[in-house]
Amino acid sequence: MLTGYNTDFKFQGKVYHIQTEDGGVGSPTITSLLYYGGAIIGSRRTTYADIIKADCLDEVVRELMMEQHKLVIRDFMKGKLEPQKAPEPAAAPKAAPAKPAPPPPPPPKAADIAEKSLDEVILDFLAQEQKLREQQKK
């Protein structure tokens, strides 16, 4: 696994942060996360599973990481990277259950999101990624 890239940049008077990291050979994915105010507002993932056996894999992955890192910034500034939206709740099954399902929890308030530090958001993300990796191993 290679060390990632972290960059703060200013756009239209606001400071954004982008982080790009490598999942390593166990999870051959390059992930770029775009943050504003501690909240993830965009992401891009690219797999490199098809080149995992390349002779100079570290060099190739490092180059892919740098290119994706820069591309996400460029795409965001050009309006090509749309901010992420909360996923829509799943549709209710057609057969009515005996008991109605409880309503989904309300989305977090913007003030709650802004109170999380960037480190907390990153740690949450890494914990989720670790859980996914463990589930995939089972």
Key words describing this protein structure:
138 residues, 3 helices, single chain, alpha+beta, four-stranded antiparallel beta sheet
Describe this structure in words.
- With 138 residues, the chain is α+β, with helices and mostly antiparallel strands.
- The protein has one domain.
- It contains three helices and four strands.
- It has a four-stranded antiparallel sheet with strand order 1-2-3-4, with helices on one face.
- Strand 3 and strand 4 form a beta hairpin.
- It is flat and about 50 Å long.
- The relative contact order is 0.16.
- About 9% of the residues have low confidence.
Principal-axes geometry comes out as flat
Oligomer: single chain
Mean pLDDT, to the nearest integer, reads: 78
**Which structural category fits the helices and strands?**
alpha+beta
From N to C, what is the helix and strand string? Answer: EEEEHHH
For the terminal residues, how far apart are their CA atoms?
Answer: 21 Å
Number of strand elements = 4
Low-confidence stretches at least 5 residues in length (pLDDT < 50)?
86-90, 110-116
Strand content: 15-25%
Strand line-up in the sheet with most strands: 1-2-3-4
| Count of discrete domains | 1
- How many helices? The count is 3
Largest sheet, described in full? 4 strands, antiparallel
